[in-house]
Amino acid sequence: MSHISFPEEHEEHGEQQNGHGNAQFYSSAFDTSASFQMNPLSSHPPRTPRTSIINNSSSSQYVYGSSVYDSKEQPQEPAVEEEEVELDEGTEQLRQAEARVRREEVWREMFLTSNGRDKAFKLIQYSLRVYLLFHTSLTTSRLLRRPARPPWERELVRRLESTVDGLSFTRKCLLLFNWLSPLTVILAQQASPLTTSRSKPAKPKPFLYTMLNAPPPVLLELVQAVADDVFTLSKLGLLGKKTGERAGRFADWCWLIATLVGLVENGVERQMIGSLQHEVESRVYAESMAAGAASAKSKPASSKRDEKELARLQKQDYWLQVTRAKLAMDLVFVSYDVFRLKRGREPIKTFAGLGAAVLSAAKLYDRHKSTLLKAVSLSI
């Protein structure tokens, strides 16, 4: 009698002979290292899983009860940029960040840049010039005048004068190639805009045309930096002395014009900040009058935002005043060189240079400190 075989019988017969059963066709659900194989006895073979799921399942642990076709990804939070983080004054987050950031770390970050080292050398240079100024004034006075100065004193003065000259030359070398920054801005304007594949690519504008159409402050910064480099190269001996003197005179004129432009821009910014500050103060006063004798805990959210905005505007106005004072010191300093003034030249230039060095170093220190506080606040 003919016998009709079914797949189940083949499976049972295979189990008795080989002892593996369906293990050669199906991998165990708990064996993650086994590769996927299709059952040839099935009339409807299973779908082929997606490649991304196979790759993910091979590198992750198996979770009981989960399906390989259910791709569940955890939602990722958008990355927070440091530039967008603002620290509110008087908050617990700011106090914790200030406790972690030390002064030494701020000075270290400041001295990593050529601008920070320039400010440090400028402070040392003009501090020594102030000391030499007082020393010369005291030793030439009637009270402390001597017929002959001791040798160690003359040697000390000579060494300090040499140190001042060396620091001045070092600062010039640190500021070499500063023309790359304005040149990059000009070249960015020269680049052709993005075009589609069908449209014809626009021809880049000539460099001379782009440079002449650049913003005047950027163009002035470029010309001044090039003139400063020519003067420094003449000090190094690579260019002639007359060429260096002419370049130095031209750089002084550029510095004078840039200082005047900076003072005008500073005045405009202070007017804008003052008007915004007046609006916020009026709004805060109106809200306080409307609230009456309410306690600090019952202040509305808008009032707290206005107070934070007012504190931010006051801080901006403070640093604008610092910048204005520094520009005024620069104007006094460069005016003596440009117009060749003689009366009170050394004392005024010395104190003006020291004042500008202190103000610019304080502003740069605050900038690096704010950057470190923002970076630390992200980890709190």
| Number of β-strand runs | 0
Mean pLDDT: 79
Strand content: under 5%
The SSE order reads HHHHHHHHHHHH
Contiguous helical run count: 12
Helix content: 55-70%
Shape: globular
Coarse structural class: mainly alpha
Distance between the termini: 84 Å
Q: How would you characterize the largest beta sheet?
A: none
Kindly provide the radius of gyration, computed on alpha-carbon positions and rounded to a whole number of angstroms.
37 Å
Low-confidence stretches: 6-85
InterPro entries: PEX11
Biased composition (Acidic residues): 79-90
Pfam family, one: PEX11
Biased composition (Low complexity): 57-69
What does this structure look like?
By secondary structure, the protein is an all-alpha fold. The protein is built from 12 helices and no strands. It has helices at residues 7-18, 51-59, 92-100, 103-111, 114-139, 151-174, 180-190, 207-212, 216-236, 241-291, 301-338, 345-378. It is globular. Residues 24-42 have a biased composition (Polar residues). InterPro entries: PEX11. Residues 79-90 have a biased composition (Acidic residues). Pfam families: PEX11.
